[in-house]
Amino acid sequence: MRDEGERVNLDARFAGLPVPQPKQTKAKAWKQRLRLLGLQAIGKTLPKARPASTSDARKILLIRPDHLGDLLFLTPTLRYLRTLLPKAHLTLLLGPWGEALMRGNPHLDEILSCQFPGFTRQPKPSVWQPYQYLQEQAALLRPHNFDQAVILRFDHWWGAWLAAAANIPQRIGYATPEVIPFLTDPLPYRSNRHEVEQNWRLAHFAWSGEVTNDERRTTKSRYTESIGPLEFFISPEEQAWAEKWLVSGQPSAAIRHSSLVTRHSLVVIHPGAGATVKLWRERAWAELAQRLSDERNCRIIFSGGPAERDLCQRIAGQVSPKPMVAAGETSLGELAALMRRASLVIGPDTGPLKLAAAVGTSTLQLYGPVDPLKFGPWGGSQRHRIVTANLPCQPCNAISYSPQEAEAHFCARGLSLQSVLTEALDLLSD
Questions:
Q1: Sequence-separated (6 or more) residues with CB below 8 Å from residue 302
Q2: pLDDT tens-digit profile of 66-124?
Q3: Tens of pLDDT, residues 145-177
């Protein structure tokens, strides 16, 4: 049962060895260069934009193509804009995968859906399809007569081009090479800022027309009181579901109404992630759950999506008594309600860990290739912590490895059980 045989002494095992790096072929580099030249040429042909409205009742289109975690990083900015512009009409253009997350957000007036090319997690279509789709979507946006578009992802040239094709007069975004041809107001991009701050800076400019040089945040905590926390809004029905599940999901009637269903003893473990290179060892998850159960009398719940149910069942089967498994049984809101009842949520760098933070629950996040300074927990280090191997190649932000290629990367898989357990016990003691 114990994970000793799979623990990795990273310093000893990998000292002096070459670090695997993502490869970029000459063909890919040429493709990117040709695309940049093409985008620059198209940008020069754009008609001059009409004057943008500066009214407090302006119509603003926010464009964010990403998935769960990055959309949650947007929530403080939505709150900020609504506070500053209570009469404005705020529309968020996102993928259909994000609608459930934002549907209950009171700061938005409207949600529009778009199958953003490159973000659907589906096989790539024909080479021309993204450009044909762009023109179709632009035609749908034009009747809205938006005054401003804010392209929130720093490298989202497709979204910036879409805003230009929709004749939106003011287009705000970051001055990265492929995006800038389509912007009327490019802002300097600072790569060392957290994604929450990147969103906030663009929104501040949309409101004030001024580029902020706010340095009040602290690098250690990646948090400022002026921006505030992430948000997710749980419905009464979702909260009632979680209460019912926590009772009916208990393995025996003897403990259904015991203190083990109170908030202070529940730990949710979310072992899955969208990228294989982010995953920790299954045996390590099982041992962690066993130690938390034995040493702190914690009640463990394994969470995940339908595709992660088998993973959670395999891990839970190695723990005694067997934990509850909620994987595949919850909607997004029900998962959030379940996490809000927990004292701690543990998992890899993935969207559901940001969801836990958004509902006010402490998190412990295992980081591999992704930069925690830019994409890490948003909140104080007293409640949200990370564990990382601190390898010389970290962070590389490369996650598109096949399962076979991921075997050569130990940044997440090689994390020691003790390092994770120590942080978990400390958070549970607070």
A1: 268, 269, 270, 271, 289, 312, 315, 316, 323, 324, 325, 326, 327
A2: 999 999 999 999 999 999 999 999 999 999 999 999 999 999 999 999 999 999 888 87
A3: 999 999 999 999 999 999 999 999 999 999 999
Q: What are the domain boundaries of the chain?
A: 54-208, 241-429
CA distances to 269, 353, 358, 396 from 303, rounded to whole Å, are: 6, 11, 17, 28
Q: Say which DSSP state 369 is in.
A: S
Residue 355: partners with Cβ closer than 8 Å, 6 or more residues away: 68, 72, 232, 332, 335, 336, 339
| Structural element, H or E, at residue 93 | strand 89-94
Same fold, 54-208 and 241-429: yes
Buried b (16+ CB within 10 A) or exposed e, 344-360: bbbbbbbbbbbbbbbbe
What's the CATH code, domain 241-429?
3.40.50.2000
Query: What per-residue confidence (pLDDT) applies to 21?
Result: 52
Q: Please state whether the peptide bond connecting residue 392 to the residue before it is cis, i.e. omega within 30 degrees of 0.
A: no
Residue 33 has pLDDT above 60, yes or no: yes
* Global model pTM greater than 0.70: yes
Q: Before 321, cis peptide (omega within 30)?
A: yes
- Say whether domain 54-208 belongs to CATH 3.30.470.20: no
> For residues 164 and 20, which has the higher predicted lDDT (pLDDT)?
164
**Residue-level pLDDT at 169:** 95
